[in-house]
């Protein structure tokens, strides 16, 4: 089992009818939406959400996405989707865990990697921009001070 990252956020998702395929399970591509919901919550809590990324002059495309399906989710099932920030100095690496909200059983685990691309030049950056690193470091320090 992977350890937690430096900061985690958990969101709840209830599987809607339109995410279920003819086999009566969640179509595999919809899990990515659930990951995105958790990632957005994580980035917002860290103070560097997508609008902040754009304001800083960078886009952050996903360059790698890995999913491991353990058991299918079904219509109406309550899921917890946890996103753990693992790396941010050179790229954004996030690990995810989707579990059944009632039983705690693992449904899916995943990871994503995003890299900074300077919007003005469309040039991929080898390191995360300093402004972003400073924002996240300051926010992590605030969050640690609360605990």
- The N- and C-terminal alpha carbons lie at a distance of 24 Å
Low-confidence stretches: none
Domain module tally? 1
Q: What is the third-level CATH name, the topology?
A: Thiol Ester Dehydrase, Chain A
Identify the strand order in the major beta sheet: 1-4-5-6-3
Number of strands: 8
Order of helices and strands: EHHEEEEEEEH
Kindly estimate the percentage of residues that lie in beta strands according to DSSP. 25-35%
Tell me the name of the CATH class.
Alpha Beta
Helices, by number, come to 3
Instruction: Please tell me what the overall shape is.
Output: globular
Helix-strand category: alpha+beta
Could you walk me through the main structural features you see in this protein, from its secondary elements to its overall organization?
With about 150 residues, the chain is α+β, with helices and mostly antiparallel strands. The chain has one domain (about 5-145): Thiol Ester Dehydrase, Chain A (Roll). The chain has three helices and eight strands; from the N terminus they run E-H-H-E-E-E-E-E-E-E-H. Strand 7 (about 115-120) and strand 8 form a beta hairpin. It comes from Bordetella petrii (strain ATCC BAA-461 / DSM 12804 / CCUG 43448 / CIP 107267 / Se-1111R).
Summarize, please.
The chain has 147 residues and is an alpha+beta fold.
Secondary structure: elements and pairs:
Blueprint: E1 7-14, H1 31-46, H2 50-55, E2 58-59, E3 62-69, E4 78-87, E5 92-100, E6 106-114, E7 117-118, E8 123-124, H3 130-146
Antiparallel strand pairs: 1-4, 2-7, 3-6, 4-5, 5-6, 7-8
């Amino acid at each position: 089992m992977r350890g937690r990252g430096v900061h985690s956020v958990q969101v709840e998702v209830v599987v809607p009818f339109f995410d279920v395929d003819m086999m009566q399970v969640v179509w595999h591509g919809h899990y990515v939406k659930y990951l995105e919901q958790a990632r957005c919550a994580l980035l917002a809590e860290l103070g560097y959400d997508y609008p902040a990324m754009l304001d800083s002059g960078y886009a952050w495309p996903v360059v790698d996405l890995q999913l491991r399906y353990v058991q299918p989710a079904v219509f109406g099932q309550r899921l917890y989707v946890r996103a753990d920030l693992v790396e941010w100095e050179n790229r954004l690496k996030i690990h995810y865990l989707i579990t059944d909200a009632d039983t705690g059983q693992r449904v899916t685990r995943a990871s994503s990697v995003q890299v900074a691309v300077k919007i003005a030049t469309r040039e991929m950056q080898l390191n995360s921009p300093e402004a972003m690193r400073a924002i996240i470091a300051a926010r992590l320090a605030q969050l640690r001070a609360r605990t």
